[in-house]
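thought: user wants a sequence for this fold. calling inverse folding tool.
action: design(structure=
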């Protein structure tokens, strides 16, 4: 497939599930822009700058990926990037309802922009940024869950772990 695709999300922080979607979509599209959304209602653990840094370090091996952030309406950002496709990942039925709603409203706002869904790799179907944060908070063993550069940032955030 040709053209540019935008993969939007919170990436708080990027996980191996996200990275898998990025690697696979980079094989499908000429260029993939991974876009970190500012101004979410939920209180993030990492600042947008920290999330961008972690993403940049995690995708160094993929040449056709750009890391960026955006404010406001996704469709406006996609247009500004001259992209025609939005990429989203699907893990379970629980993701479906929200994604259907988002894809439908985006199609209504701009019928020329298509949402492209990629099924999670089975080994990451349980993986989310929230689960990673829980694990880091209590056990600190996040190996295999996040790209290796992210380990360090999680340790820094939660501090050294002491057995109690
Ligand atoms: P959002 O807050 O927009 O859902 P996330 O950073 O949580 O942002 O996720 C961004 C996208 O990546 C979403 O489409 C989500 O479904 C997808 N995603 C998250 N975790 C995984 C995973 N383990 N496997 C595949 N897709 C995933």
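)
observation: tool returned 164 residues.
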């Amino acid at each position: 497939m040709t053209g540019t695709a935008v993969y939007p999300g919170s990436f708080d922080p990027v996980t191996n599930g996200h990275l898998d979607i990025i690697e696979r979509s980079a094989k499908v599209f000429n260029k993939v822009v991974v876009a970190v959304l500012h101004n979410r209602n939920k209180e993030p653990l990492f600042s947008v700058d920290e999330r961008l840094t972690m993403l940049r370090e995690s995708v160094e091996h993929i040449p056709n990926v750009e890391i960026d952030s955006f404010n406001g309406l996704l469709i406006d950002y996609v247009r500004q990037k001259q992209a025609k496709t939005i990429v989203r990942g699907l893990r379970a039925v629980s993701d479906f309802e929200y994604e259907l709603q988002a894809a439908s409203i985006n199609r209504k706002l701009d019928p020329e922009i298509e949402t492209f869904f990629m099924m999670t790799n089975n080994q990451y179907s349980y993986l989310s940024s929230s689960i990673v944060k829980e694990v880091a908070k209590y056990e600190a063993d996040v190996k295999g869950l996040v790209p290796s550069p992210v380990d360090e940032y999680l340790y820094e955030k939660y501090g050294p772990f002491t057995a109690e």
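thought: summarizing for user.
answer: Here is the designed sequence. The chain has one domain: 4-122.
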